[in-house]
Structure formats: C-alpha cells, structure tokens
Amino acid sequence: MKKFIFIIIFSTLYLVNCEKNLNSPIIELAKPVLLSTPADTLINEAGIDAIPEKDAIEINWLLNPEFHTFQLYRKASKDSVFKLLSEFTQKDSNYVDEDILLNERYYYFLIGIDQQNRKSEPSDTLDYQLVEKAFNLFTSLPQVIFHWQISNFFYDSYIIKLFDDNQQLIWMKQIDSPHQPFNSDSTAKISKLVSGKRYKWRVDIVGTEIHSGSESDWKFFLMP
User: Using one digit for the tens of pLDDT, what is the confidence trace for 39-55?
Assistant: First the structure.
C-alpha cells in the first residue's frame, strides 16, 4: 500500500513538473549582428571594409552584453567549409583580418556565447574582396592636382578623400581617372586650400564586383 501511494505521489509530481516545463518560455538568444559593407562615400566606414593602413579586411559588429564571448568564422571562396578565425571578449567589436590574399573573396559570420555557455544562431554571412591599392600618390603644387597609379586592372571608379589636420573632410569626389585637380566640381568646403596648412588625402578604389575595393595609404602635403 505504501509503495502504491509513493508511486502516485511521484507520478503526480512528475506530471506537474512536465506541465511547468511545457508552459515555461523557451529562452532564445539573439543573433549577433555583423555590420555590412558601408558605402564608399561615407566618412565613417564601420562595417566589413578595406582599411588604409595595410592590406587587410576590417570586420565590425554590434556589442551585445548578452554574450560574454564572440566567435568569428571565415571561409575563402576556394574553401569548402568555415573555420574558426578568432574569439573575442564581450567588449570587442572589431577585428582586422590580415591573413588574406588580394582578389580573393572572404565570407564571415559571428556566433555569440552567453554566461551559461549557450551558443547563438550564426549571424548573417557577409563578404568582402580586397583589391590592390592605388600607389605612388603625389600632389602637383601649387595648382593642387592629385595623381596616383594603379595596376593593370580596370576598376569602376576612384574616390578622392581630402582632410585637414583636424580630421575635417574638405573634399570628396568620385571619378573614373587616376588624376584630378582639387575642387574640380566646386563641391569642396573651401574654394582654396590655406597656405602653410597641412592636409592629407587618399584614394579608395571601387571594385568591379559588389563588396570589393581598397583604400590607399594616406598621403600628406603642406600647402605652400
């Protein structure tokens, strides 16, 4: 009899617990968010993009306090599977991938891990292809004509970005030839550059394929 009562009590508790679990909400982790490739004409280019400092691809994502760890995965177009590229702490939100080849497309996605070591679903997969930078940048002064060289590839267009020493954008122009006089379209913030002031400029190449391009090294000059 005692055994029978015990079985009834145990069965009741089990059923109550099952009902509780069925009614409990399922906790779903949010997907991490990789920032997509920004427009080449933006001043602040946060996303998967080229950088001027080196031949590399910078990957950016949104911070999310829900995760204590992020895992970044990568696959080149010639690879069959994604591989873990690196792990990051909760406070990290960008990574510079230097182990790449020019004219090779790379694909990335991000996974978040919370305090209970649960993994999120992968973020959207984003991609980028780095092409050769413009090189031998020089400026004809005092007329202020910007010149540069390119390889034998034919690109969609080039974007000149000119800043002053205070990081203020002075002029930006998208063109299709590797030389250009300053303010040729009369859209610069100032009509004439100031004598004795230092400026810096670079050339961004817009690739022939979507999400492709490069950013040259910065070139500085002092206006006579």
Answer: 888 888 889 999 999 99
Answer for the pair 186, 177: CB distance below 8 angstroms, yes or no: no
Q: How far apart are CA 97 and CA 85, in angstroms?
A: 9
β-sheet bridge partners, residue 103:
none
SS3 94: strand
Alpha carbon distance 121, 123 (integer Å):
7
Please report how many Cα atoms fall inside a 13 Å half-sphere around the Cα of residue 114, on the Cβ side: 12
What span, in angstroms and rounded, lies between the C-alpha atoms of 44 and 57?
A: 15
Compute φ and ψ for 17, nearest 5 degrees.
-65, -40
Task: Enter the pTM of the model.
Answer: 0.83
> What six digits make up the tokens of 69?
């760890």
Beta strands 126-130 and 212-215: pairing type?
parallel
Q: What is d(CA 216, CA 193) in angstroms, rounded to the nearest whole number?
A: 22
Please count the other Cβ atoms lying within 10 Å of the Cβ belonging to residue 217. Answer: 13
> Is residue 163 classed exposed, middle or buried when 0-12, 13-18 and 19+ CB atoms within 10 A define those classes?
middle
φ, ψ (nearest 5 deg) of residue 14: -65, -45
